Amino acid sequence: MEANHERLSVNLDVKLVQEIKTYCEVYGLDENDLIQDAIHEFMATRQAKVDNVINGYVEMANLNSQIAAEFNACESEAYARIRTVDLS
What we know:
By secondary structure, this protein is an all-alpha fold. The chain has helices at about 15-25, 30-85.
């Protein structure tokens, strides 16, 4: 094993292992390369989705603050009325 590689043991479903072996055999790929490429692609795709969510929250932050400020008076009035209601 090369110096820049580390072994990682992972348990996979028997059917998935067979699919990996068959795929690699048909396309002449190394199983390690296939799995490493698949994990890189998965992580990049997942990070892109997380980045999109973060960017959405950042873009909406100002609007959300404005909405919250507009309803602050209503919430305060409702809270004041609730406190004055006789529950007996």
